[in-house]
C-alpha cells in the first residue's frame, strides 16, 4: 500500500471512530507512521485530506454495492440487495454513522470543497435507485427514489443512535408496499 493510501486509510478510520473535528493532522501523521513532509506532499491541508477520504469512501461504497446488486437481474431483488447492503454495513463492528453525513454536519462550512465528494455520492446513489425503480416501472420514480433515500437515511441515523431501533424486515415490507402501490398497471387490449 502506498504512503498516500496508508494516510487515507488511517484518517478514514479515525474520522469514522471519532469525528473530523476531534482528529488533528498530527495524530493522523503519527498513526500513519509517515513523516510530516510526506503527509503534506500528498495533502497540503486537512481539507484536501478529508476530500480524498470521502472520494475513496465513495469509490469503495459504489464498488461494494454494485458487486452486491449485480448478482441478480431482477430490479426488485437489486433494490432489496442495495437496502440489505446498508443494513449489513450498519451492523458491522466499526459502524459509527455515515462519513458523508458527519462531514456535512461538522466541516462542510469550514471546508467547502468537501461538498464535491458528498454530492457525487448522493447523486450516484440517487441515479442508481432511480434507474432500478424505472425498471420496476413505478408511476413516479423520482418521488419514490427520494422517499427510498430518506428511509435509508433514517435507518442509518437509527443505527448510529441504537441498532435496536432498526427492524429491517418491517422497513423493507413498507418499501415493498409503496412500490406495489406505485407500479404502472399495463393496459390490456380488449
From TrEMBL:
Domain HTH tetR-type: 1-61
Key words, A-Z: DNA-binding
Key word Protein biosynthesis present: no
Residue spans binding DNA: 24-43
Any GO molecular function: DNA binding
InterPro entries cross-referenced by the UniProt entry: Homeodomain-like_sf, HTH-type_Tx_Regulator, HTH_TetR, Tet_transcr_reg_TetR-rel_C_sf
One Pfam family linked to the record: TetR_N
Residue ranges of coiled coil: none
Protein name: Bacterial regulatory s, tetR family protein
Organism field: Acinetobacter baumannii (strain 1295743)
Amino acid at each position: 500500500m502506498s504512503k498516500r493510501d496508508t494516510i487515507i486509510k488511517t484518517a478514514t478510520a479515525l474520522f469514522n471512530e471519532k469525528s473530523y473535528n476531534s482528529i488533528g493532522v498530527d495524530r493522523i501523521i503519527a498513526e500513519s507512521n509517515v513523516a510530516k513532509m510526506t503527509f503534506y506532499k500528498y495533502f497540503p491541508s486537512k481539507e484536501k485530506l478529508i476530500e480524498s477520504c470521502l472520494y475513496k469512501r465513495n469509490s469503495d461504497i459504489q464498488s461494494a454495492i454494485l458487486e452486491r446488486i449485480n448478482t441478480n437481474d431482477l430490479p426488485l431483488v437489486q433494490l432489496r440487495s442495495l437496502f440489505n447492503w446498508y443494513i449489513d454495513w450498519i451492523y458491522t463492528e466499526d459502524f459509527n454513522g455515515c462519513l458523508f453525513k458527519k462531514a456535512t454536519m461538522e466541516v462542510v462550512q469550514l471546508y467547502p470543497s468537501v461538498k464535491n465528494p458528498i454530492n457525487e455520492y448522493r447523486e450516484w446513489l440517487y441515479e442508481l435507485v432511480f434507474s432500478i425503480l424505472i425498471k420496476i416501472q413505478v408511476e413516479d420514480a423520482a418521488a419514490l427514489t427520494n422517499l427510498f433515500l430518506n428511509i435509508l437515511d433514517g435507518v442509518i441515523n437509527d443505527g448510529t443512535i441504537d441498532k435496536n431501533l432498526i427492524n429491517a424486515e418491517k422497513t423493507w415490507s413498507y418499501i415493498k408496499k409503496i412500490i406495489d402501490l406505485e407500479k404502472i398497471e399495463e393496459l390490456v387490449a380488449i
